[in-house]
Amino acid sequence: MQGEGQAIGGRATESMTGKLLVATPALKDPNFDRTVVLLVAHEPGGALGVVLNRATEVPVADVLRDWGDLARHPAVLFEGGPVQPDSAICLARMRPPVRRLKGFHQVSGAVGTLDLSVDPQRLRENVQSIRVFAGYAGWGTGQLEQEIEDGSWFLLDALPGDAFVDRPDDLWPMVLRRQGGMMAAVAHFPPDVALN
């Protein structure tokens, strides 16, 4: 599916930062089967995102004690992607009005990345909730644009709450259903049917 502003035929286009990548049934990589990825960076040299719907059973408080009470339910680590699984990326949803704060890098609206080396006590009154991801998904120059063109991903607008849903396992069909039409029908595609 071609979305407005994405690369077509190798031409440079506007950034896809803040958009959702929703895996299509045609995507064969098991790392991304039925995933929803939030793009936190997209530049001419490549793209970086985190998988929003792969919760682990490891509580955030067990790994990052001081941040645990800011974590949104379920307050566990998420598998952000197959690249550098020992690293952590923190997404935060800020309380309005969104202010420029040290350690916060805005992705879209009230959502952005948060530097985990900052003292959480300093941010408590500004942060509504966080989600912590182990690892990330990454693409080199032109790779993501090609995958979208090949039909591996739907490129869709994100809502502010997508990264912080209480039931992350339901995110893939939920995002597809809200698109309506034929896209909504994809939400009911059986998981065990292979596309040729």
Would you write up a description of this structure?
The structure is a single chain. This protein is α+β, with helices and mostly antiparallel strands. It is built from five helices and ten strands; from the N terminus they run ββββαββββαβαβαα. The chain is globular, with a radius of gyration of 17 Å.
How many strands, what sense, and barrel or not for the largest sheet?
A: 10 strands, mixed
Number of strands: 10
> What is the arithmetic mean of pLDDT?
89
Helix content: 10-25%
Share of residues in strands:
25-35%
Question: What is the CA-based Rg, rounded?
Answer: 17 Å
Span of the ends, CA to CA: 18 Å
**Uncertain spans:** 1-12
Structural class: alpha+beta
User: How large is the count of helical segments?
Assistant: 5
The helix-strand sequence is EEEEHEEEEHEHEHH
Global morphology: globular
Helices and strands, with pairings:
Blueprint: E1 20-23, E2 36-43, E3 46-51, E4 55-59, H1 60-63, E5 76-79, E6 83-94, E7 104-108, E8 111-114, H2 120-123, E9 127-140, H3 143-149, E10 153-156, H4 171-177, H5 181-186
Parallel strand pairs: 5-9
Antiparallel strand pairs: 1-2, 1-10, 2-3, 3-9, 4-5, 6-8, 6-9, 7-8
Summarize, please.
Helices cover 14% and strands 34% of the residues. It has helices at 60-63, 120-123, 143-149, 171-177, 181-186, and strands at residues 20-23, 36-43, 46-51, 55-59, 76-79, 83-94, 104-108, 111-114, 127-140, 153-156.
What are its keywords?
alpha+beta, ten-stranded mixed sheet, 14% helix, disordered N terminus
